[in-house]
Amino acid sequence: MIDLSGIESSLVDDRVKGMPGGLTPIALSEIGRQGWNLLREDLPLPLAVISASALAHNGAWMRRFLCRSGAAIAPHGKTTMSPQLFQRQLDDGAWGITIGSVQQLQAIRHAGVQRVVMANQLIGKRAMRYVLAELARDPDFDFYALADSEANVAQLVAAAREASIGRPLQLLVEGGILGARTGARDLETALGVARAIKAAEPYLALRGVEGYEGILRGADTADTESRVARFLDFLAEIALACAREALFAPGTVLLSAGGSTFYDMVVERFRAADLKRRFLALTRSGCYLTHDSGSYRECFATLRRRHPEVDDLGPGLEPALEVWAYVQSRPEPGKVILTMGRRDVSFDSRLPEAERWFRPAPRASAKDLRPVGPGHVVVNLNDQHCWLDIPVDSPLQVGDMVSFGISHPCTTFDKWQVICIVNESYDIISAIRTFF
Amino acid sequence: MIDLSGIESSLVDDRVKGMPGGLTPIALSEIGRQGWNLLREDLPLPLAVISASALAHNGAWMRRFLCRSGAAIAPHGKTTMSPQLFQRQLDDGAWGITIGSVQQLQAIRHAGVQRVVMANQLIGKRAMRYVLAELARDPDFDFYALADSEANVAQLVAAAREASIGRPLQLLVEGGILGARTGARDLETALGVARAIKAAEPYLALRGVEGYEGILRGADTADTESRVARFLDFLAEIALACAREALFAPGTVLLSAGGSTFYDMVVERFRAADLKRRFLALTRSGCYLTHDSGSYRECFATLRRRHPEVDDLGPGLEPALEVWAYVQSRPEPGKVILTMGRRDVSFDSRLPEAERWFRPAPRASAKDLRPVGPGHVVVNLNDQHCWLDIPVDSPLQVGDMVSFGISHPCTTFDKWQVICIVNESYDIISAIRTFF
To answer: Which residues of B touch A332 (CB under 8 A)?
Structure first.
C-alpha cells in the first residue's frame, strides 16, 4: 500500500499556483475543508480542477473493461505523477504502476509504490545504483525495466555484478518500430538482447516483452490500426521465440503494450497469443483516469467503433480535467484575452477548447453556467495569456470566467503542483499533489 | 531586500527532478556542498544546469547597457520565477521585478520583493483583495498593474473603494496593437481608460503608460523594426496626451515597454520622448540573464546590427542554461533516443540543439567534452524522450551524455523546481528554486 501521510500532511502556501494569496500555510488534506468554491471566486485563476465524479466513473469503467478482458493494467504514472491517484488506481485493481524516468521512480518509491514497470531503458551510473540499492533495501520492491540493446545489457550486468544484491534485475526486452522510438527493430536484434540477458543470470532476468504502439501513425485510421496489429503480433512473435529458446526466467511472462489509444487492440491481440506458457497481458494506459476533451475523446470514439461491445460496460470515459481562466481584456469586438497560458494548460497535442462561461455575482452558482456557444476558438497561447477569437455578439466581458477542456492530460498535469478536486457545484472537496 | 532564508533552508529530497535517488533530505543551500559533479554522474539525467560564469557575465553586461542608456529595468520575473535570481538582479541595480500573474506576485511577495510591476490586468475578486490587503499591510510595497478597459477600471475602483486602504492602487494604461494581445488599440480608448482612472482618485492613480512590443512580427526584420518603432511612438503619444490632460498622479511617470528582443529600441525611442515632465523609461527583459542558444541568440545578433556600439560594452550575452541527457538507445544507425522530453526542455520556440557530448569514464572530465559535430539534429520530443537524428558515423552510443542548448528560457525554467548552478568543470556549486 502507498503511504500518503507525508503528502496529505505536507504544507501548502500561497506560492503554490492555484492557492489564494495570503493563505496561512495549511496541510494539503485541509484544502477540502476550507469551504472554497471556484464559482464564488475563492481561488485565483487560472485554476486546474478535476471532477470527482468523472474520476470515479473512469476508474470504474476501466475496472469493468479489464475484468471482462482478463488483462491487467500498470497505468502510466507519468500522466499524473500523483501518488494519491496511484492509490486510487491500485484500489481499482491495478497490477502496478508504470513510470518513464528515474526521477519518477524516485518519487513513487518515496510514497511506497511496490510494483513498478519502468517503460524505458535504465541508463547511467546513478540511476542503476539507485535501483539496485532499492532492490537490496526492500525485498517487496518488484521492479521491471526495458532493454533494447546488448550495450545497455552489458552496462546493467556490470552494475548488477558490482552491487551483487542477491536477486536479479528484471528486464523486458523491448520491440520497436522502424522509424519510431526505442526498441529492437527486428526479431534477431530482440533475440540478441534476450540472449544477453539470459547469459547474465543470476544478475539479470528476462521477464517478458514490451512495446509501445501508441506512436504509430498510418495514412488513415484503418492503416494505423493494421500497423498496430502487426506490431503487436511482432511483440508476441518475440515472446514466442524467447519462450522457444527458454530465455525467460521462471514465473509468469509479461507481455506488455498499450498506451491510452489502442489498449482494446492490445488486449485482443495478446489474448490470442500462444506462448505455450503462462503470461500476463499488461496494458499501461495513463490517460483513461482523467480522459480529455480533445484527442483522447476522439480515440475513445474510435475504440467504440472497433469494439461496440464496450457500450455494455455503461457510459464511456468522461473528461475529468479542466482549466479555468478570467477574461482580462476584450481589446477588439471579436477577441478576448484570458489569464491562462502555456504554463497552465496543454498545447502540445491541441489548443484547449472553451466550454462554459460564468459571470461572478453574489448569488450566482453552477446553475448559471452557460455553454460558450459556437465561434469561440482558442487561436494562440503565450506563456501567460490565452487568445480566444469570439463572435462579435459574444456575451463575454472583462471579469467573466471561462472553463477550458484540455487535450492530452499529461501536459496539463505537469503544469500544476497541486490540483483541486471539485464536485458538481465546484466546491473544492480535496486536492492532490503532483511530483514532476 | 529579498529574504532568501526560507528558500535556502527549504528541504530537497529525491522526489525533486535532478536530485539523486536515495538522497537524505538536505537544505537547498547544502546542494553546493555535496561535492557533486555532473560529468562524474553524481546526478541523474535529464538535468538542467546554469553556468555561474555566464550568469555573472550577463548580469554585468545588462548593468553596463542600462548605465549607458539611462533607462531602468524591472526584469520579467516570469522567466525564472526564482527569488534567488531576483536578488541578483536587484543587486545588479534593477528598479523592480515584473510579474505576469497573481500567483507570481504571491510567490515573490513571499520572498519580500518590494517593487513589482504586474504586466497584466488585475482581474478577479480574490486577486484584487489580495493586492489591496498587501498594500494595506506593507507601506513599502510599491505595486503597479495595467489597465486597458474602463470595465476593468470600474471593477478595480469598486474593490479599492470597498477596501479603502488609504492609498491608491497604481495603474499604467496599456497601449496595444490591432490584431495582437491586450492593450488599447487607439489613443481615444487609452485616454478613456486614463480618464476613468483619474476620475477614480484617490482610490486609483495613473502612474504611467505601458505596452509590449515583443509580439510584433513584420514581413521581414526591417518591417518588424518599423512596426516596433511606430508602436513605441504610440505609447509615447498616449503618455504625452495623458500629461497634457494632467491625468497622471504626482511623481515620476513610468513609460514602460521592452521584452528581451527590442529593449535597445525601447531605450532609444523613449529617450527621445518629450513628455514635458519627469519620466522613467522602464524596460522589462526577463531573458537577458540566462540568454539562450536559439531565438534570443539571434535576436541579440540583430540588436548588435542595430546598435553596433554595444560592442563597446564588451562581449555580448552568453547562453547560461543547458539541459543534459543520456543516450538510452541507438535503435537505428542514424538515430539515437535520449532521456529528455518536453517535460524537461523548451519546445514552444524551437527544438533544443545538441551541443557537446561526453563518455563517462573513471578519469574523464570537462577536458574530454567534444562538440557533437554537424548532422546531429533534434527532430522530435515526446513527454520523456528526445529523438536525435545523427550521421551514421556518429560516435554516440548508449550511456553517452549529451548537452543541449535551449531556445526560450521561460519554458525550460518552468520545467524544473530546482536548478543546479555549475562552474566550468561542471561541479555543482549551488542551486536555485523556482516557483511556477
So the answer is: 178-179, 185
Q: What is the pLDDT along chain A (436 residues), one digit of tens a residue?
A: 789 999 999 999 999 999 999 999 999 999 999 999 999 999 999 999 999 999 999 999 999 999 999 999 999 999 999 999 999 999 999 999 999 999 999 999 999 999 999 999 999 999 999 999 999 999 999 999 999 999 999 999 999 999 999 999 999 999 999 999 999 999 999 999 999 999 999 999 999 999 999 999 999 999 999 999 999 999 999 999 999 999 999 999 999 999 999 999 999 999 999 898 999 999 999 999 999 999 999 999 999 999 999 999 999 999 999 999 999 999 999 999 999 999 999 999 999 999 999 999 999 999 999 999 999 999 999 999 999 999 999 999 999 999 999 999 999 999 999 999 999 999 999 999 999 9
Across the interface, whether the CB atoms of A181 and B385 are under 8 A apart is answered yes
**B389 to chain A: closest CA residue:** A179
Residue of B179, B329, B342 lying closest to A182 (CB–CB): B329
Chain A residues closer than 8 Å to B184 by CB: 331
Return the amino acid letter for B48: A
Closest chain A residue to B434, measured at CA: A15
How close, in Å, is residue A391 to chain B by CA atoms? 15
Q: How far is A82 from chain B (nearest CA, A)?
A: 12
- Given the C-alpha cell 456575451, which residue does it identify? A395
Cβ–Cβ contact B103 with A under 8 A = yes
A129 vs A112, A132, A165, B425, CA distance in Å?
A: 18, 5, 11, 23
CA B314 to chain A, closest CA, distance in angstroms equals 32
